[in-house]
């Protein structure tokens, strides 16, 4: 049994006790902690179920701050599994509450999380505005974690719009703060975004070094989807260096992770499938078609979770890996 599963046992016992004595507040808090534990295990649907149960208790109790935090948590979990319209609704409700209560830290966090939703949709202009608002507020209140987190995501959004130079500057700033705070997840994020920007600038060796460091950290902190993305980055570099066999080594590791981590598909970046397909196709590997097909199926499933037609179209056509998968799959029919 893993440490996280073991840690949930006393929480389950605490929940049963609070239910027996009809302690509504105790139930609400325990359900929230169980949601956090489930999220750490990448069990996002289970996580949302706990948060929803806690929310059903929080609302009659009239604790608006807790209600806002639970809505925010629900939005992040939904965003992580690419239920993007649902995530948007939760986060907009949370943001309204935080604005009404005048809680700047939670407002900054939620604006940033909403920016991430728009980035995942492919609405980069809207995402950039929200992330810049979140970053400004984080700096105003001295939230260094929030600043580094916002810089990381802003780097990715700026890069998606074609500005690799600014993206690299933002990522380096994010990593500098993360390093000072000694927070592994932020360090990995900064290294990953630096790698992306360096790759876009053609600095392949430097990009590979960033990806390797980020991969090591992601494995240490059990971030399987992010670790797979770093391996895909290394495979991409190997392909650009005309080293298909080395690329295949990284792809084999990615495919093993996908096969052995049943929850990873919920949050995996489709760039992983695209790079794996390219590497396998270049070597004439018969798994190429199935890999592309799997990525295409996940893409369409995620698009189905976007209610707004215009946003769904952005998701399919403005995110580079999505467009590449769609076009290539159509060409192979």
Can I get a quick summary?
With 333 residues, the chain is mainly α. It has helices at residues 3-20, 24-40, 44-61, 64-80, 84-101, 104-121, 124-141, 144-160, 164-181, 184-200, 204-220, 224-240, 244-260, 271-282, 287-304, 309-317, 320-332.
Question: How would you describe what is shown here?
Answer:
- The protein has a domain at 234-333.
- It is built from 17 helices and no strands.
- The protein has helices spanning 3-20, 24-40, 44-61, 64-80, 84-101, 104-121, 124-141, 144-160, 164-181, 184-200, 204-220, 224-240, 244-260, 271-282, 287-304, 309-317, 320-332.
- Helix 1 (3-20) packs antiparallel against helix 2.
- It is globular.
- The model has no long low-confidence stretch (mean pLDDT 92).
Structural key phrases:
17 helices; single chain; mainly alpha; 0% strand; 333 residues; globular
Query: What does the oligomeric state look like here?
Result: single chain
Mean of the pLDDT scores? 92
Number of strands: 0
Helical fraction? over 70%
What is the rounded Rg? 20 Å
First CA to last CA: what distance? 45 Å
Could you describe the largest sheet, including whether it forms a barrel?
Answer: none
Structural class: mainly alpha
Overall 3D shape: globular
Low-pLDDT sequence parts: none
Put simply, the count of helices is 17
């Amino acid at each position: 049994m893993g440490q996280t599963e073991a840690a949930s046992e006393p929480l389950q016992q605490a929940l049963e006790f609070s239910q027996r004595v009809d302690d509504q507040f105790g139930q609400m808090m325990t359900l929230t902690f169980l949601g956090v534990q489930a999220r750490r295990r990448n069990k996002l649907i289970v996580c949302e179920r706990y948060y929803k149960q806690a929310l059903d208790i929080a609302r009659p109790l009239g604790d608006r701050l807790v209600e806002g935090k639970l809505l925010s948590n629900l939005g992040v979990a939904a965003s992580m599994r690419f239920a993007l319209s649902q995530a948007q609704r939760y986060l907009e409700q949370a943001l309204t509450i935080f604005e009404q209560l005048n809680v700047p830290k939670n407002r900054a966090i939620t604006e940033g999380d909403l920016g991430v939703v728009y980035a995942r949709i492919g609405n980069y202009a809207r995402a950039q505005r929200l992330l810049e608002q979140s970053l400004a507020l984080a700096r105003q209140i001295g939230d260094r974690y929030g600043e580094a987190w916002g810089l990381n995501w802003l780097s990715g959004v700026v890069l998606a719009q074609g500005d690799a130079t600014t993206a690299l500057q933002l990522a380096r700033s994010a990593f500098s703060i993360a390093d000072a705070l000694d927070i592994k997840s932020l360090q990995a994020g900064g290294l990953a975004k630096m790698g992306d920007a360096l790759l876009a600038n053609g600095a392949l060796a430097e990009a590979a070094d960033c990806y390797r460091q980020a991969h090591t950290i992601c494995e240490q902190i059990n971030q399987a989807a992010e670790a797979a993305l770093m391996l895909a980055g290394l495979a991409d570099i190997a392909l650009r260096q005309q080293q298909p066999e080395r690329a295949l080594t990284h792809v084999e590791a990615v495919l093993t992770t996908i096969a052995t981590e049943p929850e990873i598909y919920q949050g995996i970046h489709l760039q992983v499938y695209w790079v794996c397909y390219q590497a396998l196709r270049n070597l004439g590997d018969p798994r190429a078609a199935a890999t592309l097909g799997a990525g295409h199926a996940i893409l369409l499933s995620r698009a189905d979770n976007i209610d707004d037609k215009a946003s769904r179209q952005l998701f399919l056509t403005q995110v580079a890996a999505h467009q590449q998968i769609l076009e290539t799959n159509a060409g192979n029919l």
